[in-house]
Amino acid sequence: MTAGPGASGRALPVAEPSRVRRAALRLIRLDGRAFAAMIALNAFAAAAGLVGPWLLGRIIDEVGAGAGVAAVDRLALTILAFALAQLLLARYAGYVGHRFGERTLARIREQFAERALALPAAVVERAGTGDLMARGTTDVASVGATLRDAGPDVLIAGVQALFILGAVFALDPLLGACGVLGLLGIWFAARWYLRRALTAYLDEGAADSALAEQLAATAAGARTVEALGLGQRRVAACQEAIGRCRSTRNRTLFLRSVLFPAVDISYVIPVAGVLLIGGVLHDHGAMSLGAVVASALYLRQLSQPLDTILQRMEQLQSSRASFARVEGLGRVREVPAVRAPSPASVTPDGDRIDVSGVHYAYDGGPDVLHGVDLTVRPGERLAIVGPSGAGKTTLGRLLAGMDPPRTGSVTVGRVPVHGLDPGWLRRHVVLVTQEHHVFQGTVRDNLRIASARATDAELHASLAAVGAEWAGELPDGLDTDLGHEGYRPDGAQAQQLALARVVLADPHTLILDEATALLDPRTARHTERALAAVLEGRTVIAIAHRLQTAHDADRVAVMEEGGLIELGTHDELVAADGAYAALWRSWHGERPLSS
Predict the structure, then answer these.
(1) Residues 480-525: pLDDT tens digits?
(2) Residue scoring higher pLDDT (165 or 574)
(3) What is the pTM assigned to this prediction?
(4) Range of lowest pLDDT (78-92, 168-182, 272-286, 517-531)
């Protein structure tokens, strides 16, 4: 076996813009009333904000016409009333918008968790956990901040900008046209920015994921790094990833450094243009001074919503890229190479497993399995043995449906394993390796992952079946907290918890790949025999690194260089004096057999 899963890496997909738009519209429809209320309140707030400059212009004209203090006071009180109305409407619109954003963020988080849990293990292994972690933390948080803050702010600002421009056109179409022409600089700067921003932020997100993967791999393998003296190599790899992050961040910073100065200059142009043209029109008696002042104030007021939009544009582009990465998980199931769905009505006819003419290669590399043919009978205990790199683990992954063969087929009950519904497959075919995870929670919580309705008696029985007597000695028994702030099981105990979960799950086929490797030989043998007794009648396929497992099995499959070279009982293969007999003699010479 020349490569393993994740050897070359394959990034999780990113959703295309059309899919992101559909996802956004779907989220809006799910909370349509709140969204409509938010728009209406923002519109009313924007309309209330238009009254002030218009009344100020009226005050100027009234004073010019000789009006008294009472008229000015009346108009000033009206301005104050509408300003207060705008404040209250805007505050309530923000409240509605924030609640809309929080509910929508909750839906995104729930959907992301569901999709992440449904991902085939092979996909996660190839992509790396760093990418998945970055999407589930940084990207989801970015989308949430946009929904809660940036989205409502931009919506409010957009409505205000439209109302303000409409008010300027209502005062005088020529001044309105002057104001719009003065804003063209903002349009060109924003267009230049938007053409480049999405790609730049996607690159930044990919670089962040790569850095997270490097850091996670270094932390997880800290002992190996220290033991093999790989510290400098890992530091160099992390520094290279940090360099890529810095480069992508400098690119997005450059885009912002061009956009914002261009926008600041563009704010002044329409106001200056309106004052100049309005002054000329006023001199010729074509426009009142109040109308000129009101138009200038409107356009000056326009800078606030436009500034909000442009300031948030950077966050919107970053969030758009983040949303594309989060929504990209929904595309994993659509990639043909991941899983070829079977019709829902297809149910395996029995538990027999057939491997026919299987060839397999990791990520387009050379084949690591070559024409493997094998039949595993229901209820059989089969041991797969062979030297390191023979393809044992790869075959186990195919039997568990984690990867599809390049050619040939792996079927259970005449149905391709890789095409079965993941939920059905995980209940009926379970792969157990030496890599186990202890979840935050109690012993009971960790066990009930496999069977939510299991009674305490069943939980104790599952622990006893795998020799986990230590669990009964814990201070709070099944209620003992596990993890950083509770009891910390060692590697062997974590393996026993995982095997106890297998007992509770009660699958018809169990595939053990070094599942007892962290246990001492005597405990490992006891555990394997206890499992065999508990799972009597179930199919057990053990990828054996201790040949005592092969000795206890019904049949032994011997692999070498990706091919199946021998198949038979232990006694038959020893008598045949072939590859298995040589392995047995070598192992038996070091470890005397005690039946």
Answers:
(1) 888 777 788 877 788 788 888 888 888 888 888 876 666 666 666 6
(2) 574
(3) 0.55
(4) 517-531
Q: What residues have CB less than 8 Å from 245, skipping those under 6 apart?
A: 204, 207, 208, 211
Instruction: Measure the CA–CA gap between 408 and 361, rounded to whole angstroms.
Output: 12
Phi, psi of 578 (to 5 degrees): -105, -145
In a domain, 191, yes or no: yes
Report the CATH number at residue 101.
1.20.1560.10
H helix or E strand, kind and range, residue 460: helix 456-465
Burial degree of 533 (CB within 10 A; 0-12, 13-18, 19+)? exposed
User: What is the tens place of the pLDDT at every residue in 238-274?
Assistant: 888 899 899 998 988 888 888 777 777 776 777 777 7
The token duo for 205 is 């997100």
- Whether the Cβ atoms of residue 270 and residue 183 lie closer than 8 Å to each other: yes
Number of alpha helices (DSSP H) and beta strands (DSSP E) in the chain? 21, 12
Listed in sequence order, the residues at least 6 apart from 66 whose beta carbon sits closer than 8 Å to its beta carbon are: none
Q: Are 256 and 190 contained in the same domain?
A: yes
Residue from 440, 460, 465, 448 nearest 505 by CA: 448
DSSP class of residue 438 equals P
Examine residue 7 and state whether it is found in any structural domain, yes or no: no
CA torsion 290-291-294-296 (nearest 10°) is: -110
Two tokens, residue 440: 């935050």
Q: What is the SS3 assignment for 19? A: helix
